[in-house]
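Journal club prep, notes for RB
We'll compare a predicted complex against what the paper describes. Inputs for the zinc ion case:
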Amino acid sequence: MGLDCAAVTPQRLCIGCRRSDAKSALVRLVINPVDATLQLDWAQRLPGRGCYLHPQCVSVVIRNHGVGRAFRRSIDPAQVAAVLNPLKAD
Ligand SMILES: [Zn+2]
């Protein structure tokens, strides 16, 4: 009877490993609607289209062009690397 609380945890797909995980385990990326730049959305509440990835999947995402695919547009790989590389330091 009733809902399983664990099942209610929001799940999102990682654009690196393509596995679903709890939203809280992933980092959100958005394209700023004003200046069209890629940015990290730590609070996961910025407006606009977003995608998610594990911090540990950064290298995969950079290599497989997952960001451009997620947003269905070509994004300068240098911009992707500049935004995502700081995540690898952790
Ligand atoms: Zn992943």
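Talking point for the session: The radius of gyration is 14 Å.
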